[in-house]
Design a protein that fits this description.
Elements (H helix, E strand, L loop, with lengths): L12 H8 L6 H6 L8 E4 L6 H8 L3 E6 L2 H15 L5 H4 L2 E5 L2 H4 L7 E4 L14 H10 L5 H10 L4 E7 L13 E4 L3 E7 L10
Parallel strand pairs: 1-2, 1-4, 2-3, 4-5
Antiparallel strand pairs: 5-7, 6-7
């Protein structure tokens, strides 16, 4: 079954172009503490289109991708199956495992180096600025009103580092501690919570 909504394709279009040129200096990799000398085990707790998970896997990480929408989970499985048949992508796709479930439950029992969270963010007032894939994804999976709860659970069961991707100018959900630090771009910031003294160091 495929969904009448966003399609995930890890090879073509703008994403394929970006993936082919993704380097260690990218904010996403810096935020999770990626290092060529030490591949990470990362849980992407909010699967969505799977693009960030694929980029993390391209950097050498083993990625567990969690998606609670049945339709989107099916689409991710299809896209990964296609990638495994592509000789240029198979090695990357083999580093990704997709789970169907609610991360608020699953994070309690998963071992990893990093928890990465990119929830469905508050809708922009100027909806025309929202790209079509994200608009279609919102229609399929809905909003994430429990994102604050998910982040709290991730922090409670933190493996040492929790990274939250959030709009640059939007406030984080109420009740969260201050991030250890942030990496910002014009539209996005990565809020990094380092919970242990021996947590992975960022290459700044």
């Amino acid at each position: 079954m495929t969904i009448a909504g966003p399609k995930t394709d890890f090879a073509s279009g703008r994403f394929g172009y970006r993936a082919a040129r993704f380097g260690q200096s990218e904010p996403l990799l810096r935020a999770v503490g990626s290092s060529k000398s030490r591949p990470l085990n990362i849980v992407d707790a909010t699967g969505g289109l799977g693009h960030d998970a694929f980029l993390l896997a391209a950097s050498g990480a083993q990625v567990t991708l969690i998606e609670r929408s049945p339709a989107m989970f099916t689409e991710l499985e299809r896209a990964l199956a296609d990638a495994l048949q592509n000789e240029d992508l198979a090695e990357i796709a083999a580093r990704i495992t997709v789970l169907h479930g609610d991360s608020r439950d699953l994070l309690r029992d998963i071992k990893a180096d990093v928890f990465y969270i990119d929830p469905m963010h508050p809708e922009r007032k100027k909806s025309a600025l929202v790209k079509e894939p994200m608009r279609l994804l919102r229609e399929v999976v809905g909003a994430d009103p429990d994102s604050g709860e998910l982040i709290q659970i991730a922090l409670q069961h933190s493996p040492g580092r929790v990274v939250v991707k959030w709009p640059a100018k939007a406030a984080l959900p109420d009740g969260l501690p201050q991030p250890s630090y942030e990496l910002k771009s014009r539209t996005t910031r990565y809020c990094v919570f380092v919970a242990a003294p021996n947590a992975l160091k960022i290459d700044r």
